[in-house]
Design a protein that fits this description.
single chain, 136 residues, alpha+beta, 7 strands, 26% helix, elongated, SinI_DNA-bd, molybdenum, HTH_17, Transp-assoc_OB_typ1, TOBE domain-containing protein
Length: 136
Amino acid sequence: MPQIRISEAARFLGVSDDTVRRWTENGTLTARKDAAGRLAVDGLELAKVARDQSHLPDDPARTGSSARNRFVGLVTGITADKVMAQVELQCGPFRVVSLMSSEAVRELGLELGSVATAVVKATTVIIETPQGKSIV
């Protein structure tokens, strides 16, 4: 399993290094020395904690949908002309941008600070890793 240094773990979780150290002290995470002698946590264990710690607000629409990627957030930006608009949402730590008609922005009543849900249904999702190899 990959070992993630404390400072990197904190960055992935959006918390301070001290918080990760407290979690290793109280048993939430298990710290071990890496090959360089620095404290690190197991990547899989960190992923489980990250998943358990992530909580977005409930979707106010509460509608049934086949799309599983739903991000509830606040509208932080709207750039519109006569025909098209760009709407930005801040959904927890994620910034989601949608392009739609200006008419849709008006009909949805979108304005800065309003609550909205970004629904992502894509046929292609690209995953990248720092040490990944390109496959041609």
